[in-house]
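Extended Data, panel c. Modelled sequence:
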Amino acid sequence: MKLKNFFVGLAVIGGMFVSGCGNDTTVAGAPGANGLNGATGPAGILPVPTVAGATSTPGVGVAGGGTPITITGTNFVQGFTSVTIGGVAATNVVVAAGGTTLTAVTPAGVPGARNIVVTTPGGSATITNGFTYQNAVLLVSNSLGNSIVSFPHNATGNVAPARTLTDALSIPVGIFANAGELLVPTLGNSEIRIFSSTASGAAAPVRLIAGALTQLASPRSVSVSDNLIFTANQVANRITIHSLAATGNVPPLRVIEGANTGLDNPHDTFVGGNNLWVANTSGASVQLFDSRGSGNIAPLRTITGALTTLISPESIWVANGEVYVYDSGADEVAVFPVTADGNVAPSRRFTTPTANFGELLVFNGEIYLATEPNIVNVYLTTDTGTLPAPQRSITGALTTFNQTSSLAIDPTITLP
């Protein structure tokens, strides 16, 4: 005996009629901002899913992802239902008993309204513009203004900051955003001040690492990885590693320093996995250390020499298998493969306006470069040549920039 599945259904969802019969699925009614856009499915094997709407709190989410959402509809199948938002898979998809509700967690996404697609073995259904990603937040430190100002990451022109943090900052030359916190090393008093990422005005830090035991000495920048703070101490030619939970006058867990390290005025660090990258401004070099190392250890690799074009590398960022270096001596951004070692030419580079110092980062295929005097330029990661035109610039009196020296992007918070 042969059995043939045959499904006939009629449902009313948000004022729309959805009917299915065999290979055909019909949707009647104009789709809305959060309405059913369409449903497709194979012949009769399982009922085609339908979606009535999506809810989240507060109805939008940050570009970094991680927002819980709930989707209602019919014919969801536990263990066999997937959700995408803007074409990217959501995580932690759980279908409730009865198959009419599911929960999921949003992935990282590009700012703007994005479609939600629910797929089961029976087919798929779409909520048009069902979720909206908000802009990430760009934070810029003013080393003379003793402040940190925040903008949407896509801000351009002469715009006022949406938020300003002042506190008792003393020459805040570096900033690092991490898991709802903002870490700020200050040259003026050799401290690391740790704030809530949304702190503003004269808000006090939630933690402060300061004192002789810390071995902080003119800390220029910090990076966070595996619940550890890696700090470049430019005067002492030292990398200190503290617990992320450290507070007060506490010694570091480990220290990297000594003649074998080759550290020479380290201005910036980047940590990923077991890799600790360091930009040495006076040493005209970029070094790679084992991030688990301690003491007077030699680097695993060093990029230096005439072919590299490095003169005074100020800042470093690693992304997409490449090492991005801003060099204030050469007034350029040089890009190397992560496997580079020794006296090797960059794979590409481009020149930048003359500046005494600055810092870069890479986000969503763009290079953000904050330089003195008082400008943030945004370039493409593929730019090359002489003074390519930036995609956009943030500068002008309204920005309140006062010797811009560092920047960070936090995709996990929003602006007021």
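The CA atoms of residues 320 and 338 lie 9 Å apart. This feature is highlighted in the accompanying rendering.
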